[in-house]
Amino acid sequence: SREPQHVLDMYGTQGSDGSYAANCLLARRLAERGVRFIHLYHRGWDHHGDLTSYMKTCCGLTDKPTWALLTDLKQRGLLEDTLVIWGGEFGRTPKISKRAAREHHQHCYFSIWAGAGVQPGRTIGESDARAERPITEPISPLMAGTTIAELCGVGAQQRAEMKVLDGGRVINELL
Question: What phi and psi values does residue 53 have, to the nearest 5 degrees?
Fold first, then answer.
């Protein structure tokens, strides 16, 4: 109720309606107040049939608010200190199945990173022509976790003392 209409319009929400758009706006407000970790979840990406319909729906619900969150954080000077990662736990098979779905695929997947020192406009990693296997060094969950920790100020010595992310390396290509 405290947000101006143009901000609500930018996110595509009419307030705190529980939508992904409202949650993106809430995330910006939490970041403004110094909250160090915010996790947003959008139910609906794990679809195993009727891909075209689901993609239209999911993209329609997430594109605008995700853009608005990044834009709003940048305009307010918060993006340089806020790490935003958009991704999931699996990639998707490069081929559409008989059920009109793309099933779980652990070999190639994507994530989008912004803020906190991440250099924009980079593509890191490469797959074969069919997107079935990586042809450059694969980015592992351990590498992602190590990079997140590093960007959040938890350096190698602190990670060693806490005994977390042992053997992980920072994805320097992001920085």
Answer: -65, -45
